[in-house]
Amino acid sequence: MKSIVEGVLKFQQDAFPGLSGLFKQLATTQNPSALFITCSDSRVVPELLTQQDPGDIFVIRNAGNIVPSYSSEPGGVTATVEYAVAVLGVTDIVVCGHSDCGAMTAISTCKCLDHLPAVAGWLRHADAAKAVNASRNHISPAARLSSMVRENVIAQLANIKTHPSVALALEQGRLSLHGWVYDIESGAIVALDGVSNTFVSLAEFPETVATQAKRSALAA
Amino acid sequence: MKSIVEGVLKFQQDAFPGLSGLFKQLATTQNPSALFITCSDSRVVPELLTQQDPGDIFVIRNAGNIVPSYSSEPGGVTATVEYAVAVLGVTDIVVCGHSDCGAMTAISTCKCLDHLPAVAGWLRHADAAKAVNASRNHISPAARLSSMVRENVIAQLANIKTHPSVALALEQGRLSLHGWVYDIESGAIVALDGVSNTFVSLAEFPETVATQAKRSALAA
Amino acid sequence: MKSIVEGVLKFQQDAFPGLSGLFKQLATTQNPSALFITCSDSRVVPELLTQQDPGDIFVIRNAGNIVPSYSSEPGGVTATVEYAVAVLGVTDIVVCGHSDCGAMTAISTCKCLDHLPAVAGWLRHADAAKAVNASRNHISPAARLSSMVRENVIAQLANIKTHPSVALALEQGRLSLHGWVYDIESGAIVALDGVSNTFVSLAEFPETVATQAKRSALAA
Amino acid sequence: MKSIVEGVLKFQQDAFPGLSGLFKQLATTQNPSALFITCSDSRVVPELLTQQDPGDIFVIRNAGNIVPSYSSEPGGVTATVEYAVAVLGVTDIVVCGHSDCGAMTAISTCKCLDHLPAVAGWLRHADAAKAVNASRNHISPAARLSSMVRENVIAQLANIKTHPSVALALEQGRLSLHGWVYDIESGAIVALDGVSNTFVSLAEFPETVATQAKRSALAA
To answer: Which annotated residues bind Zn(2+) (chains A, B, C, D) (predicted)?
Structure first.
C-alpha cells in the first residue's frame, strides 16, 4: 500500500500541475465518446493502451470483461452500460479481452471452482463461449485459451445486444460495437470483423467494426 | 472512435517500446498488491492518480464505485473481489469515490430514474448511505452531494465486509480496507480514518486506514 | 370445464382410433424436428396453423412468446430450449408472435401493470423491443402495436442467441432461427428475413430465415 | 422445416377457409374458459386431446408441465398464470402430465444432468414430488416413473396455490384446479380426486376436481 500512497503524492506533485487545466474543465462535467469494457487484470490499463486522457473513455472493469445479458434483475454492468449509452450517449462500445486471462484460463482448463462460488457463478455468463470453444479441436492448451478469449468477446457482444439501451442506439444508428483482444506481451490488438466473423489486426484494419448500426437506420 | 484507434497505434509505436521489458515479464503472470474499486467515470483514472504501472493494481470500475453486499446471487463485483482476495491474495482494498459523481448526484437530488431501471436498481446498493445522508441537515446541495459521496464509500466498505473472502482475510490479519474520496478539480484525496470515523487528508496522514485486520490476528 | 371434459371423451371415441397407430409408435419416443415458441393466447394453436401431427413439433407457450436471455438463474423457457436443442437436437426454432397480443398491447399502450407484478416483471424481457418501438413514429395505435409485435420477435431472437446450446448449434451449422408473426384474422404469416432485416410473406418466400448457421460452419 | 412451412400453406388454403368466420370473431378478442398447463412434449397436443377450438383454452407449455411456486422473482409461468386468472378470469386450471415424460424420467432415474444446467435447475421445482416418490417402494422402473408423473402433478398443484391470483380466486369461489395425467399410447386420462387424493378415470368420473373453491366462498 505504501507505493500506492507514495504514488498519490507523486501524482499530486509531479503529474497534476501539467493536467490542472484539463481537470479544471472536467471538474463538473464529463463527455466521454466511448465505453471501454475490459478485465480487472492489473496488466490491462485501458487509458494507457488507448493513450486516452482523463475524460475520454468511460470504463467498466470486472473479472473476465463480462457483460451479463439483460434480465429483470440487472446488476452493476447492466446499470453502467445503461448510464453510458442512455445518459452519456457514447457512440462506441469496446469489449476488450486479453491474453493470459485468469478467468478464461479457468474456463478453458475446466478448473474446479467449488472454492470460488461467486467466480463460478459469474463465469456462467460466458457459458455460450465455453460451449462453442469446447466443440472445437485445438492444437494445444495455449490455442484453446486463445480461442476461448476470442469466443468470450463474441459472446459478450451477443449479450450486450439484449440490453434495451444498446438495441435502441443500434436501431437509431448512433452506436457501434467493437470486439478486441489485447496481447500483453506484444502490445498488439486484434479486432472482430463483423462481416467475416474473424479477428483481424487493428493496426492493419483500423476501421474494423463488430456490429454497425442497422442498415435501415443508417439509410435514414 | 478514431482517436482511440489512433491512440492504440501511438501506444504501440511510442509507449510500448519503453515498457516492453515490463510487459515481457508480465506476459504470463500478475501479482498486484491491491484491489482498487472506483467509478466508471472517465475522469477517474486509477493508474494515473496512484502513479502505478501495469501489473500493480487490480481494478474494478462501475457506476458509483459500488460493492453489493454478499448474497446468494453474487454478481460481477462479488466475483471479482473473491478472485482478488482468495486467488491473487491482495493485501489492500481501496474503495475510491470522487467529486461530481453522476450516480451520487442522482441519489442526492432524488432524481427520477424511471427511465433508467437498471441504474435505479443498482443504486439501491447505496440505500444505507442514502438513508444516513437524508437524515442530516446540509447547508447546500453541494454539501449534500459531498456528504453523499463520503457516506457511499462508508456504506460500500460495510458491504464488502459481508463477503466471505474478505471476512476471512480480515480475521487472518492479511487485509486492510481503505476508503478514499478523490477531488477531480484539485487532485486531492481524503481517506477515511477508521478510528475517528472521519475523512482526513491522505497527503497529511498517509497511513490512514479504514479497517485494519483484527487485533487478535495481528498479534498472532 | 364441461366442454373440455366432453372434448376429451369425444377425442377418445372419435379422433383417437384413427391416430392409434401413430400414438403407438410415439408411446416411448419423440423426435420433433423443430421447437415452436409462441404465445399462450387461446387463438394461436401451433399444430393447427402448421398442420403438424403429434410428435412433430416441440412447443413452448407463455404470455408474449418470450425467451429470456441466458443468465445464471435460468427459468423454464431456458431449460426447455436447452432440452430441445441439446437433447432432442431440433434443427429449427420458430419464435412466433401474433396480432392482437395482450402482452404486446400492454407494452404498446404503456398500460399500468402495478396490479400484475409478475406480468410486469416478465414483460421486462421485451424491454429492448419496447425501447426500439417507442423511438419510432407510428401512424396509429394499431400500427404501433403491429410494430411492437414484430420488434418483440426480433428481440426474443437476440435473447435466444445468448443461450449456450443455441450458440453452439449455430456455430456447428445445425440450427436455423425463424421469426414469424401470425395474423389471427387472415391466417397470414410474415417471416423475418435476416438479410434485409424486414418481414416478408412466408407464402411468397417460404425459405426465409432469420439467422442461419455461421458462414464458417456452413463452409466446413 | 420444409414440412412446417408447407403445413402453413396447407393451413391457409385448406383449413383456414372453414374457420374464417371463427377467426374473424376472434380477431380482436379472446375469452378462454380454462388455462391448460402441459408439457412441451411434441406428442401432447392440448387442443387435439380436448377437442377445443381456437379461442377456447389458454395454454402454457414447458418441459415437465412445471409451475414454480410464487417467489419474489417471478418468471414466465407465474406471469402467464397471473394473466390468465387476474385478467382473463379463467374458471378452471388443468395441470396435465403425461406418460413417457423425458423430464420426469430424468428425475425418476436420477439421471446426471451436469451437462444440462438449465434443465437441472428447472426440475428443482419438482423436488417435493421427487422426495415423496423416492420415499416409496416401486415394483419396477416403469411404476416408479408412472408414480413420479402423478406426484409431479400433485406438487405443481401445490405450487400454483402459492400464487396470489390463484389463492384469491379460490377464496372467492371462482376457480377450480384439475390434475390430469394423459397416456400417449391409449389416449386415456386419469384425474386427481381431491377428496380421496387418488387418480381416477376421467371418462368414468368426468366431474372429478383436484381443488374446489373454498366452501365459505361457495356458500356466499
So the answer is: 39, 41, 98, 101
C130 Cβ under 8 Å from any chain A Cβ: yes
- Cβ under 8 Å to B: C residues 41-100: 72-73
D77 and D162 fall within a common domain: yes
- What does each C-alpha distance from A186 to B21, B26, B29, B138, D41 come to in angstroms? 10, 11, 15, 52, 53
Q: Report the residue from C128, C168, C216 with minimal CB separation from A162.
A: C128
C31-62 pLDDT tens trace: 999 999 999 999 999 999 999 999 999 999 99
- This complex has an ipTM of 0.89
Are the CB atoms for D152 and D126 separated by under 8 Å? Answer: yes
Distance CA D153, CA D143 (A): 16
User: Is there a single domain that holds both residue C2 and residue C85?
Assistant: no
Q: Where does chain B show beta strands of DSSP type E?
A: 34-39, 57-62, 92-98, 176-182, 189-193, 198-201
Residue A72 with chain D: CB contacts under 8 Å: 73
Asked whether residue B113 falls in the same domain as residue B4, the answer is: no
pLDDT score of A72: 67
Size of interface A-B (CB pairs under 8 A): 278
Report whether B41 belongs to an annotated binding site. yes
Residues D36 and D118 in one domain: yes
Kindly give, in sequence order, each residue whose CB lies less than 8 Å from that of residue A83, ignoring residues fewer than 6 positions away.
Answer: B40, B63, B102, B103, B116, B119
Asked if A167 and C155 come within 8 Å (Cβ–Cβ), the reply is: yes
Predicted confidence (pLDDT) per residue in C78-136, tens digit: 999 999 999 999 999 999 999 999 999 999 998 888 888 889 989 999 999 999 999 99
Instruction: Give the single-character DSSP code of C61.
Output: E
Distance from CA of A18 to the nearest CA of C (A): 44
What's the gap in Å between the CA of A132 and the closest CA on chain D?
14
Report the distance separating Cα A74 and Cα B123, nearest Å.
Answer: 11
- C86 with C181, same domain: the answer is yes
